[in-house]
Amino acid sequence: MPVLTDDAAGRVDTRPAPGENPPQRRAWWTSRRRDQLAGLLFVTPQLVGTALFVLLPLGLVVWYSLHEWNVLADTFDFVGTDNYRKLVDDPNLPSVLRSTAYFSVGLVVLNLGLALLLAVLLNQKLRGTVVFRTLFFSPVVVSLVAWTIVWGFLLQDNGGVNGVAGMVGADGPNWLRGEWTAMLSVIVVQVVKNVGLNMVLFLAALQGVPAELYEAARVEGASRWTQFRRITVPLISPTILLTSIITVAGALQVFAQIAVLTQGGPGTSTTVLVYYLYQQAFQFHQFGYGSTLSVLLFAIVLTLTVVQWRMRRRWVFHEQ
CA nearest 141: which of 200, 227, 65? Predict the structure, then answer.
């Protein structure tokens, strides 16, 4: 116990008694604080990058959508919600949203369906599967613009696709000049370009399914389709959720294929929202209205992503 004595000035002596250890002062720089600082230093570059290149541009887009910005006249006038009223009254917007929906639905269905089919086929223990995996994945690493330009030549009226069709006696259409054929062509080009990525994700998920489950199902007399429906799909459902979110968000942001292959035509049959945004902002120099379309695109992507994420408890196996 410390010795309590009063001196002449009335101060108390709290020094420890002889033979008693002084109380240990708790260190401020603990291992926990060191770990917290190390973690903060590791995530700081990502936080700074997100703030500078995601949050700040997003805020500026919303700010620009409230203005009329004429670069040629060097004017930047506040117009409030006029651009949003213009968005509601835009006669071209319904056809643009319809084309966006057709393109997104077609791309997502074909991409996910084909990727899952290829993954199931390539998951078999057969000779040559490594070669086919490489062939299907190789378009993913090819330059997007170069890929699209090559397909532009192949899909011309006298291009390679119609040339192959002519060898078997078929007369192919002008793929990029018909309304439905142009949309189909853009979807197929995008699917062939990126299906390998989802295929690899599905393949990794399939290889993580325990073989004992299939053996038990075969013992019980389950068919291959029943095994796929009752075992494979539930166990790879987290990967299906991931790929669907990525594919839907990517489908709504496709631009280069439209710009190179069809320029939104014929008419507005392939004018998706991203390309319409580009036209308004960079061709017609209506940057305020283009920013408003950007806000609309962000709202659509965010809504669809949240809906898919909220639905995960219904069809993702591990969330049930």
Answer: 200
